[in-house]
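User: Run a structure prediction on this.
Assistant: Running it now.
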Amino acid sequence: MPARVAYCVLGLVLFGLAIALTVAADLGLGAWDVLHQGLAERIGLPIGTAAIVVGLAVLLLWIPLRQRPGLGTLLNAVLVGLFLDLWLLVLPDDLPVPARGAELVAGIALFGVASGCYLGAGLGAGPRDGLMTGLAARGWPVARARTMVEVLTLGVGWLLGGSVGVGTIAITFGLGPSVALWYDRLRLPGVPTPHGRHRTDQ
């Protein structure tokens, strides 16, 4: 269990870095961060703190999907926002456009790796990924479920005044394939997929 918890926390540290990279790139935020930013500006909180508030609220949407939270769910709800704010304190915010473009691409790629780690620990999906796995368990492909949730979230975030730009398109449609690429590859042996299959069943 300690090793699985450490693997999960590693994923959350990387998750916070991945989001921070896309925020620091300043080329348009990802869907969830459009929502977090809009909420943060309205209630006067750091974006990471707003992410924690949203994560806890999203858990309510698990009820109709019959998803059960685990230790990883609670760690995700709190630590991602915390690490996001911490990473933003050290990332530069005055880079030239080519470097910011590299940050955006790196953030998208790292998001999939981070998701694979903390989901692969088998301690429960995070609040947002619980929506994805809940839909996947009901027949939706992982990439399609991810994209649908991102698009709906983007709309709400935009209505709240969150920042949308060219990077938003790349992030929204790039996250699904990135997660799908690493989702099972980084899963620990014996940890079941949302469909009840094990890693060796691929």
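The radius of gyration is 16 Å.
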